[in-house]
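Co-fold these.
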Amino acid sequence: MARLDRPVSRRQSQWLLLAAVTAFAPLATHMPVWLAVFAGAAFVWRGWIIQRGGRLPPRWLLVLLVIAGSLGVFFEYRSLFGRTPGIALLLIFLSLKLMELRAPRDAVVTVLLCYFLILGQFLFTQTILTACVTCLAVVITTAALLAANNDRPTIKQQFEHAGRLLLQALPFMLLLFVLFPRVNGPLWGLPEDRRTALSGLTDAMAPGTIAQLSQSDAIAFRVAFTGAFKGIAPAQSSLYWRGLVMPDFDGRTWRVSQTREAYTTPPYAEESRHSKPIDYELTLEPHGKRWLFALESPTTLPAESGLTRDYQLLSRQPVRSRMRYTQRAVPDIQKGLTDPPEVLQESLALPKNSNPRTRAIAISWRQRHGDNDAAILQAAEDFFSRQLLRYTLNPPLTGSDSVDEFLFDNKRGFCEHFASAFAFALRAAGVPARVVAGYQGGEINPVDGFLVVRQYDAHAWTEVWLSKQGWVRVDPTAIAAPRRIDSSLATAIPANETLPFLARNDMAWLKAIRYQIDAVTNGWNQWVLGYDPQRQRDLLTRLGLDADWRNMTALLTILCGASLLLLTGWVLRQRERIDPVRRAWQRFTAKLAKRGIVWQPWEGPDTLAARAASQLPAHATKIHAIARSYARLRYAAHPPSKGLVELNQSIRDLSL
Amino acid sequence: MWHWLHRLQRLLHEHFVRWALRVPTPEPTPITLVQRRVYVLPTRVGLAFAVALITIFLGAVNYNLSLGHALVFWLAGLGIVTILHTFRNLVQLTLRPGRCPPVFAGDLASFDLLLENTRRDARINLQLSFAGEAPVEIDLPAHTTNTATLTLPTTQRGWLALPRVTIATTWPLGLVRAWSYIAPDMRCLVYPAPARNAPPLPWSGEAFQGASNVGQGADDFAGLRHHQLTDPPRHVAWKAAARQDDGKLQTKLFSGQSAQELWLDWEAAPSTLTTEQRIACLTRWLLDADTAGLHWGLRLPTLRLAPAQGAAHRAAGLQTLALYALPPVTTNHGTS
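Predicted complex below.
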């Protein structure tokens, strides 16, 4: 390829440095400190060399630095592969590549590395803000590539040019984004990365676990109701988003025991006595764990998921990215009537010698009601109601007999205290019971109609096994604080307790703004970030197209071709803008050429006219007149205003 | 084996170029690069860009990065758009031959090509080159005509036709290269190289026709007159000019000037010389005679040039010598 092999100029180096810094800046916080400092120092050093002159470091030093950096990455991550170590390595290469900008090739490599790093940002965050920052980075990097080819334009011109090119590329991006047949990743195994802790429920519940979550307004998931409940969400009190089932109790902490899927389809018949099925689509924010949330009781399971023996919905893989699944819930399905005895045994186990007062009262229920578990359940509910327990975010700390202290001494607790004590009491009375953790309620965003469930909606309740009904949901919190279930957390807790801003009911206008922002974010999540093969199929089906990849490819080709033609049309439209006077003259010479009188470029109008007139004496006057009027239009200090019209007319009248 | 492959490759390339030129050579001017003779292919940078895009795409799929998809599709769009822009940078460009002053064999022949941009937008980084040579780069702002000068070393006298020129551009992003071949009818006259060690001017025999004062008259000073623009600079009375206040120049007149005629005769050159050496010798004489301000004539076996003096006569003489005993002009397009 014929490229002039000239060194990278100062201006080009500046552009490349700017592109590198823009690509690096958003990543800085995601990199280990030493690496961020390493890259930052390299950029500053390069900037210094550009500004103050000076020599680039010798190659052996760069090689040493690359080796040192790679070793650093290896010791940091114990691997050179995977996403974070990969990006760390790219960053090292980029910062050192800037140190050896010698040939145009180096500039190109730098630009490509920048594009890679821009991709790297998406591994950490894909918000709208990230997208905006990325757009800027792409424009700058493209401008750097432009500058690598032609460094004469000013910064402003370079930006404009890059912007224009990228704007013209936009239709292709949109077409490809919508129509390019999507493949579900991953293509190869994703190496496990160290991950930062994500907020959410954990697989153990001790006093205070859920109260802690009530301070977070992070979104747990969003729900769009469809079918019969489209536009009218089911009653707040029925929205129990069942998540973790915790049958394992050690006296203080409840734990999940089942982590194996036992069923790949729901083991209960899909039949409903009174209730309408609830259809919805749930978009779960990544929480890094395997459990999924669903209304009771799911009649279908999301792909790649199963139910444990205690009907806990589990994904095969931890939920590391936003996950969307459609569900149909039938509220009053009986389940667990045929549960194996081990499950029931597990739900009766209690640590020895703890909480004697609760045990005593539970035994008294059993004595009074004999085999009637339902009556014992009623007795327990009555007891909880009689104790006048108070629902609060800030319960006092409890000692080793936490249930006794809650029920008899301080009588104040959050939902985990209620659930824990209730399940304990029933177990003590010999009724199988377990704690269930999940979310309760949620808030409809009036802007887009999505139900938003936040971390502060986290809740714990109990399930009790009755021989005729199977597992029955009982929420002891509802006994003390019915408004928590019917309405929201804010209405249920005392007014002086602090809650996250979004959980509060005041400041309506700020909330309205927040609704708008959240709706935009949700739209972004649903349609841009969540645009997966399923979404693509749905969209194309809605457009009346058969959504197989052949159709998509055909449509894509047609539309891209059409865009290309439009752009080409633009290219050709601007190809020539000759002035009308010259066009008129061309018509005239073309007429003469037909009679064998070819206009030679060196001939002036008069010379040509004289030659033509001598060969075509019959038209001599007209020919001379045309030449004169052309010359006047072309060369006169003040061309006649109607000259062009007359010229065109007389050329038209000339019939040779 | 490799040798054969190489030859095959060159043969194929030659065939392609002839086909790609699309017009019989040399082509009439002005040449406008219409769409069908402008070709576009990715450069090595473009291929690297494509490989990078594929890698980014695989990463985006693997990690389910929706914005990664958007990025790679945007850059792919950029790649598509840049094809058009590079193409547009070249297409509809008009070229005409410009000046091409004669040179002596051994010097560099320079061909001026006038590139006309009739468009509202500039054309940037146009590279003109002969096959395998380093290109000349030129920019054309909107609605302008610029001159690109291509140089070619010369070795022998005669007409040197402009070889096929490749005009190419990779602007704006360097990802694709658009190029076209042109072969305008343009020739450079190459004068023979003057001999280094030529015999002295042939002041003998019939060389002095009508000369009255042999050996004296050539530089006899005959007076001064007002300088005219056409007078040779070496006849300016510089000393007189320095003495005068008004700065007006005067020209020295020589009495023998009109009378002295020197015949530069083919036969006067040493008979041991070959044709080319004779021509070199005559060229040297011609230049010496011209420098001396003589009236000289040229006599070759097949033609003669009547004695005269001045730039036009010098050019005519040199052209005669340049073309003497050469076959009629053929173009060497497609053979270079």
